[in-house]
Design a protein that fits this description.
The complex is a heterodimer of chains A (about 300) and B (about 625). With about 300 residues, chain A is α/β, with parallel strands linked by helices. Chain A folds into two domains: about 200 residues, P-loop containing nucleotide triphosphate hydrolases (Rossmann fold, 3-Layer(aba) Sandwich), CATH 3.40.50; about 80 residues, Alpha-Beta Plaits. In chain A, α6 links the parallel β7 and β8. Chain A is elongated, with a radius of gyration of 22 Å. In chain B, about 60% of the residues lie in helices and about 15% in strands. In chain B, β3 and β4 form a beta hairpin. The longest helix of chain B is centred in the N-terminal third of the chain and has 39 residues. Chain B is flat and about 95 Å long. The chains are: A alpha/beta (about 300), B alpha+beta (about 625). At the A-B interface, α2 of A face α1 and α3 of B.
C-alpha cells in the first residue's frame, strides 16, 4: 500500500533520509521508531506529500504521492503540532478541510462529538496541546482516509482519550482496511497497536519486520553456571551483563535456537524472558553502534 | 481521475479573503477618506463660486486625482501590495502551516493562483468601489470628470499589479517573514541605492568624477521612479499623448509585475516547504545572497564608514587607498559571515575552511577593484578627449557658464583641463581653502557625454588663468552678451545695475558703498543696443573676473520664446549679467550719464557697506 523506495533527502549538509526504504501493507499498523534525528518526521512528511524527495520513490497504491491530488485526498496526516488558523475554531477547520477531502463525512464528525468532548466553537489556538491533538484526530477520522499518518500522535493526551483514540483508529483499520503509519518515541504505546515495526537510524531503515517476529527474534535469557564457561560462538549475543553468577544475555536469532545452543553448555538454570519493544529497540540500536545511554525515550 | 481543483481553489481563496479582509477594508477606507470628502468639498465650492473660480476647482479636482494616481497611489500600492503578499503567502513562513498547506490534496499551482487572486482581487474591488463612489458623487452634482477618474483607476490598478509582482517574488525567495520586508525594500530601492553608492565610491577613487544629477537606473527602482515622475509633472488635464510617458511606465511596470507573478508561481511549484524559517528559500540563490550581501555591504556600509571616518580628512594617495580597502574589506567580511550564519543558522559554519577561503576571495575582489580604480588602471582620470572627438564643451565656474562649439574655444577648454590633470599628477588633490567647483562637460561626436568636476582654488593662478581664458574666449564673451536667439522674439524688459563707490564714513575712513538702480525697458534697450553692443564690437565688454573690471554688475532682463517650450507660445524670462571694464568706453559713458561712476573691482577689497536702493 505505502512504499518508500531508496528515498534520499538532504537539508543542506545534513542527510535526513539516506536510502530509506519502507513497506507498509494495506490494513497494517506500521510503527516507525528511531532515536531523535533519525528521520522519522521527515519520512512521514514524504508520505503525506509535503516534502519532495531528492531521489527515490514514495508510493501509495503504486502511485507517487507528491503533487498527486487524487492520492493525497485519501491520506490524512496528523502532525505533532496540529495546525489551525489563528482565529479558527474546530468547526471552522472542519468546514475548511471538508472542502478539500471528498470523503469527508460530516455525520461522522458529528458522531465523534461524543468522544471528543470539547467546545468546537472555541478558537483552536486556545485549546491545550492535548485537546488540539484530539481536534486533529477528530478531523482526520472524519476524512475517512485510506492512509492515516500520525506523527507523535498521543503526546499530551490523557490516558482515557488516548485509549479511545487508539480504539477508534484500530476500528478503522479493522473495518475499512485503513493503513496506519505511526511515528513515535512512545514504544510502549506502539507495542500495543502496531503489527509491523520499522526501526530507523540516520535516515536508514535498520530493521523492518512484524512485531511478533521481532519479539520472537530477540530474546532475553538469564542463566547461571557453576564455574565460568565460554558461550557458544554461534550464538548472536547483542548484550551481556552479569550479577554474581547470574548472566543476562540478549540474544538475536530466535528463542528455540538460542535455548538449544545454551542447553549444550549445561547451565545450572536457564530462564527465557519476554522482551518489550523498548528493550528490543535499545539493543537493536546498541548493536548498530548507537550508545544506549544517549537514547531519549 | 482528474482533480476538481486544477487551477483555482475556491475554498483557499474564500478562506484567505475571509482571514485578511480587514487589511483590504483599511485600504478601501483610506482611499475613500482621501477622495470623497475632498471631492464633495471641491464640487460644492465650485458650484457656489464665480465661473472663473469654478474652473480653478475643476483643476483642483483633476490635481487631486493626479496626486492620487501618482504620489499617494504609489505609496498606498507599495505598502498594501507588500502587506497583501506577506499575509497570503504567510503560510510558507511557519513549518506547521507550511506542512498543513503541503498536505492538502491540491496542486501547488492551484494553491498559488488561489492565494494570489485572494490578494489582488480585493485590491481591485476596493479601487473599483472608490471609482464608482466618486463617479456617483460627480454624477449626483452634475459635475462629471470621468477621464481623471479613469486615469486614477488605471494608474492605481497598474501600480497594485506591479508592486504585488515584486512582493510575490520576494515572498518566494525567503522563508522568513521578518526577512520578507527587507527583500521587498531592497528590490524596490536596489538600483538607485547601488548606483548612489557606486557614484559615491567613484567620487572617492576618481579625481574629477561627477555623478549624474538623476540616477540613470531610476526606472529599475519603481517607487522612486513613480514618485519622481509625479514631481516632474503628469498633468492629467493634458491630452493622453502628453502624459503617455507616465502611463507607459506604469504599463511596463505592471507587465513586469505579471512576469514576476508567473516566475513566483514557478518558484512556488518548486518550493521546498522545509525552507519555512530560512532566510533564503531557494537553494540556488544561496551563493548569490552571500556574495550580493558581501559586495553590497562593501559598497554601502564600506563607503558609509569611509565617509564618516575619513571623509572629513583630506587624505590622498596610498593613505586613501588603504582607508578605502580597509572599509570595504571589513564590511564585506562581516557581511559574508552574517550571510553564512543566516543561511546555515549555525555559527559553526564560520569554522569551516571553505568559508574562510570564500571570505578571502571576497576581500581579494574588493582589493583589486579599489586598488585598480584608485590607481586609474582604466585611464578614466587621465582621459582628455582629443580635439577632433569633441562636438561641443560646456564649462562652468562660479556663476559663469558657457557652451562652446568653436575649435579655438574647445582647445582653450582642453588646455584648462590638461593643466588641472597635470597639476594633480604632480601634487595630488589640493585641499586649499576657498575651493570652488569647475565643471567641464564634453559632448562627443559619437553621442557620448563626458563630465568632470574639479575643485579649484581661486588663488591657484596656474589653474585659474587657463579657466578664465576659456570663460573669456571670444565665443564665450559673445554668448554672454547675446540676448536670446535669433527668431525667438527677445524683448528687453528692464535693467538693474548694482555698483560700488568709495565714500568716507563718519570716522573719515574710505569704505565701499553699494547701490542698486533700476531702469525702464526703453532705457535698458538704449544701454544694450547703443552702448554695450558698440563695446562688444571692439571686444571691450563681457569678460569676467578681470582686474580691469569695474565693481559694477549690469543685469538686463529679457523675455523670449524659449526653445524648451514645445508649444512656442510661452515666454521665458532670462537675464544677462555684465561688468564693464576700463575699455568699455561706450557703456561707461552711458553709466556716467545716468549718475553711475563705479570703482574698479580691485578697489572694492576695502571695507564694504551693503547695497543701498
Amino acid at each position: 500500500m505505502l512504499k518508500l523506495i531508496d528515498v534520499n533527502k538532504s537539508f543542506g549538509e545534513v542527510k535526513a533520509l539516506n536510502g530509506m526504504s519502507l513497506h507498509a501493507k494495506k490494513g497494517s499498523v506500521y510503527g516507525i521508531i528511531g532515536p531523535n534525528g533519525a528521520g522519522k518526521s521527515t519520512a512521514v512528511r514524504h508520505m503525506a506529500g509535503i516534502y519532495r524527495q531528492d531521489s527515490g520513490q514514495v508510493l501509495v497504491g503504486g502511485e507517487p504521492v507528491f503533487e498527486n491530488t487524487e492520492i493525497k485526498s485519501k491520506i490524512a496526516y496528523v502532525p505533532d503540532d496540529v495546525f489551525c488558523f489563528p482565529m479558527a475554531t474546530t468547526q471552522d477547520m472542519m468546514q475548511y478541510y471538508k472542502s478539500f477531502y471528498p470523503n469527508f463525512r460530516t455525520e461522522r464528525f458529528e458522531k465523534l462529538r461524543e468522544l471528543f468532548d470539547f467546545d468546537i466553537k472555541r478558537p483552536m489556538r486556545k485549546l491545550s496541546r492535548g485537546m488540539k491533538k484530539q481536534a486533529g484526530f477528530w478531523l482526520a477520522f472524519s476524512m475517512m482516509p485510506e492512509v492515516l499518518i500520525l506523527d507523535e500522535p498521543v503526546d499530551g493526551m490523557d490516558p482515557v482519550v488516548r485509549r479511545s483514540v487508539w480504539r477508534l483508529a484500530l476500528q478503522d483499520v479493522a473495518e475499512r482496511g485503513t493503513t496506519m503509519i505511526v511515528a513515535s518515541h512512545n514504544l510502549r504505546e506502539l507495542e500495543d497497536v502496531c503489527d509491523t515495526v520499522g526501526i530507523i537510524e540516520k535516515g536508514k531503515m535498520l530493521h523492518e519486520c512484524r512485531l511478533d517476529e521481532m519479539q520472537e527474534n530477540v530474546v532475553k535469557i538469564q542463566l547461571a553456571y557453576e564455574s565460568e564457561r565460554e558461550l557458544p560462538p554461534e550464538l548472536h549475543v547483542l548484550n551481556i551483563s552479569q550479577s554474581g553468577k547470574v548472566k543476562t544475555l540478549i540474544v538475536k536469532g530466535g528463542t528455540e535456537r538460542a535455548t538449544e545452543l545454551l542447553k549444550s553448555t549445561n547451565p545450572l538454570f536457564m530462564d527465557v524472558l519476554n522482551m518489550s519493544l523498548e528493550e528490543i529497540f535499545i539493543y537493536e540500536l546498541g548493536g548498530a553502534g548507537y550508545e544506549v545511554k544517549d537514547i531519549i525515550l | 481521475m482528474k482533480s476538481k481543483t486544477s487551477f483555482f481553489n475556491k475554498a483557499v481563496f474564500n478562506k484567505t479573503v475571509k482571514r485578511f479582509w480587514p487589511v483590504w477594508a483599511v485600504y478601501l477606507f483610506i482611499w475613500l477618506l482621501i477622495t470623497v470628502p475632498a471631492l464633495v468639498g471641491f464640487i460644492q465650492n465650485s458650484q457656489t463660486a464665480t465661473p472663473h473660480y469654478s474652473f480653478e476647482y475643476e483643476t483642483l479636482i483633476v490635481n487631486m486625482f493626479k496626486t492620487g494616481a501618482t504620489l499617494v497611489g504609489a505609496v498606498m500600492a507599495f505598502v498594501f501590495a507588500a502587506l497583501s503578499a506577506m499575509l497570503v503567502y504567510g503560510s510558507l513562513y511557519n513549518s506547521s502551516s507550511a506542512d498543513a498547506l503541503g498536505s492538502l490534496p491540491l496542486k501547488r499551482s492551484s494553491i498559488f493562483i488561489s492565494l494570489t487572486a485572494a490578494a489582488l482581487v480585493p485590491l481591485f474591488i476596493a479601487n473599483l468601489i472608490v471609482f464608482l463612489t466618486c463617479l456617483t458623487i460627480e454624477a449626483a452634482y452634475g459635475f462629471l470628470m470621468i477621464e481623471s477618474l479613469l486615469i486614477w483607476l488605471a494608474a492605481v490598478t497598474l501600480m497594485n499589479i506591479g508592486f504585488f509582482g515584486i512582493a510575490a517574488i520576494c515572498a518566494q525567495f525567503t522563508g522568513n517573514i521578518l526577512i520578507f520586508p527587507a527583500f521587498y525594500l531592497i528590490a524596490n530601492f536596489f538600483a538607485v541605492v547601488v548606483e548612489t553608492f557606486v557614484n559615491l565610491f567613484l567620487t572617492a577613487v576618481y579625481y574629477g568624477f561627477l555623478a549624474p544629477d538623476k540616477p540613470k537606473t531610476i526606472a529599475f527602482s519603481p517607487i522612486v521612479n513613480i514618485l519622481n515622475l509625479s514631481f516632474i509633472g503628469t498633468n492629467l488635464a493634458e491630452p493622453f499623448a502628453e502624459r503617455n510617458k507616465y502611463i507607459m511606465y506604469l504599463l511596463i511596470f505592471a507587465a513586469v509585475g505579471i512576469v514576476f507573478i508567473v516566475v513566483s508561481a514557478l518558484l512556488f511549484r518548486k518550493r521546498r516547504l522545509e525552507s519555512a524559517g530560512d532566510t533564503v528559500a531557494v537553494k540556488a540563490l544561496y551563493p548569490i545572497f552571500k556574495y550580493a550581501l558581501s559586495f553590497g555591504s562593501a559598497l554601502v556600509i564600506g563607503m558609509g564608514v569611509y565617509s564618516v571616518a575619513f571623509g572629513r580628512f583630506s587624505i590622498n594617495g596610498f593613505a586613501k587607498i588603504f582607508a578605502l580597502c580597509l572599509c570595504t574589506c571589513l564590511s564585506a567580511c562581516i557581511a559574508y559571515c552574517v550571510a553564512e550564519i543566516l543561511l546555515t543558522k549555525n555559527r559553526k559554519s564560520l569554522r569551516v575552511k571553505k568559508t574562510w577561503r570564500n571570505i578571502l576571495s571576497v576581500c581579494a575582489v574588493c582589493l583589486i577593484i579599489v586598488v585598480s580604480l584608485s590607481l586609474d588602471v582604466f585611464g578614466f582620470q587621465r582621459r582628455l578627449p582629443a580635439k577632433d572627438e569633441i562636438e561641443k564643451v560646456t564649462v562652468a565656474y562660479l556663476q559663469w557658464n558657457s557652451t562652446l562649439t568653436e575649435e579655438d574655444s574647445i582647445e582653450l577648454a582642453r588646455v584648462a583641463h590638461k593643466e588641472i590633470l597635470e597639476e594633480y599628477a604632480e601634487k595630488g588633490q589640493s585641499s586649499d581653502p576657498g575651493m570652488m567647483s569647475f565643471r567641464i562637460i564634453y559632448s562627443l561626436k559619437n553621442g557620448r557625454t563626458e563630465i568632470r568636476k574639479y575643485m579649484v582654488s581661486q588663488d591657484n593662478k596656474r589653474l585659474i588663468i587657463p579657466i578664465m581664458d576659456v570663460l573669456n574666449s571670444e565665443e564665450a564673451t559673445r554668448e554672454r552678451i547675446a540676448i536670446g536667439k535669433p527668431g525667438r522674439g527677445a524683448v528687453i524688459l528692464e535693467a538693474e545695475i548694482s555698483y560700488g563707490v568709495t565714500e568716507k564714513n563718519e570716522n573719515g575712513e574710505s569704505v565701499v558703498v553699494y547701490y542698486n538702480k533700476s531702469f525702464s525697458a526703453s532705457e535698458a534697450k538704449d544701454l544694450y543696443e547703443n552702448y554695450i553692443k558698440k563695446d562688444a564690437e571692439h571686444e571691450n565688454i563681457g569678460k569676467v573676473q578681470k582686474a580691469t573690471n569695474y565693481n559694477c554688475t549690469i543685469s538686463i532682463l529679457y523675455r523670449w520664446y524659449s526653445p524648451a517650450d514645445r508649444t512656442g507660445k510661452d515666454f521665458e524670462v532670462q537675464r544677462i549679467e555684465l561688468s564693464p571694464d576700463t575699455g568699455s568706453e561706450y557703456t561707461l559713458k552711458w553709466l556716467k550719464e545716468h549718475g553711475i561712476v563705479p570703482i574698479l573691482t580691485e578697489q572694492g577689497n576695502s571695507t564694504a557697506i551693503p547695497a543701498k536702493g
